[in-house]
């Protein structure tokens, strides 16, 4: 387990995470990298007829990208990497300005499975997007990223709560409004501050999707800097690996034998049930339209799916040294031991032996290690977009992920080599060597 092979990949990952504090920024960061590699964005209202090469469609916090080799038949099978762009966090309410006892505060709502104690006493910025009044009455969108220590959720001093170390849970409703100034709340103050930072007139703000993020930059940890520590490793590790793999597949010396696809969905952490989530028809419609754009019909679409394969890539649990009894004793993945293959016979993961064989064969070709993962039978098993994609498209799917600690925390940890191992395996699967 050496941390050396993929340090340059991880350096690039840290830059990606620092630039991507919200799902909308993740999409923008991915799109920027794709465009640099020669991909072009398609709009839903465009004519896609005959479109080849690198292509992508973005919608809010979701991105679907694919590469069509020249003269690829309409029935060419897909090689799909599925990921998600969102991470658990605190999201700002529609009427955010609040306060008590002489403090100005911001009302937030809990998004996803947040270990709330990890958000206490951290310096927090604001990110997301503003919906703005545009020309001719057509709304426009503007990304916002304020990497300044504006807010903080202060923990109650131990002198005032002697039970704090006894596992008492934070009251989810009453004690999570971050402080950001002294004085009575002023209606519209938050919007004025965010709009000013974006260089926009507050009067043009019609709505927003704003959230808080830890402003501590990502970095390395350990005696030999063998660990990565950052916010939003779940699941930006996989998005970044998927983008890297797709670019490698599209620009490598060997033309892909398949249509490589990256599907980065939003809202996985809350069930994927949105227009940009894995339960939506977004991926299905885009892939079907790509077949039609190359002159294919229903038979070509069916053939392309019949030969398709999907890798659902999401962070996995490394064995925790202080809670090893919570893990299956025979399945204890460690950082820098390679990506895990996740198995659950109750289909919380979509992996079967065929998917395992496809993934491990690719790992062997690039010399990458891998590790099996099964949840402890006594513990509930998590899930990802794999079962949703498998059920919706009817394609063979394997669930995999980089093992890490502190999942869903405001600051997570993984091994320095595993993200690069994952990207190399995904690129091999996409190309089909």
TrEMBL record:
One of its GO terms (molecular function) is metallopeptidase activity. The keyword Hydrolase applies. Coiled coil: none annotated. SUPFAM superfamilies: Aminopeptidase/glucanase lid domain (SSF101821), Zn-dependent exopeptidases (SSF53187). Gene3D superfamilies: Aminopeptidase i, Domain 2, Zn peptidases. Keywords: Aminopeptidase, Hydrolase, Metal-binding, Metalloprotease, Protease, Zinc. The keyword Hydrolase applies. One of its GO terms (biological process) is proteolysis. Its cofactor is Zn(2+). It is an enzyme of class 3 (hydrolase). Zn(2+) binds at residues 84, 159, 408. Its EC number is 3.4.11.-. GO terms for cellular component: cytoplasm. InterPro entries: M18_aminopeptidase_2, Peptidase_M18, Peptidase_M18_dom2. Pfam families: Peptidase_M18. HAMAP family: Aminopeptidase_M18_2 (MF_00467). Belongs to the peptidase M18 family. This is Probable M18 family aminopeptidase 2. It comes from Streptomyces globisporus. The lineage of its organism: Bacteria, Bacillati, Actinomycetota, Actinomycetes, Kitasatosporales.
